[in-house]
Write a structure and sequence with these properties.
This protein has 96 residues and is of the alpha+beta class. It has helices at 17-26, 56-64, 82-95, and strands spanning 2-13, 30-38, 41-49, 69-79.
């Protein structure tokens, strides 16, 4: 079973960079790099499963006090991890 993966580009104040990178790791994201964007801002580039992005806008707004922004675009499909595959199969069985 495949899951959609998106390309995330998020710009955050320098003091929030560590918090956002930690959150991306929790969301099964792969941080590809980071670079200074402009005065006091950092651009973080990552690949994140679409499933994990449902409340990212709210998280970013709260963490950066409204100073962060992001774009998220579909990139490709990847194999769903085995531990999540079991959850999907169980959910389908419950519906049927």
């Amino acid at each position: 079973m495949l899951e959609p993966i998106g390309e995330l580009k998020v710009t955050v104040p320098d003091e929030n960079t560590g918090d956002v990178m930690g959150e991306l790791n929790k969301r099964r994201g792969r941080v590809l790099g980071m670079e200074p964007a402009s005065n006091g801002l950092t651009l973080i580039q990552a690949e994140v499963p679409v499933l994990e992005m449902h409340d990212f806008a709210m998280y970013l707004r709260q963490t950066t006090r409204g100073m962060g922004s992001f774009t998220f675009d579909f990139l490709r499909y990847e194999q769903l991890p085995a531990n999540l595959l079991t959850d999907v199969i169980m959910a389908v069985k419950e519906e049927g």
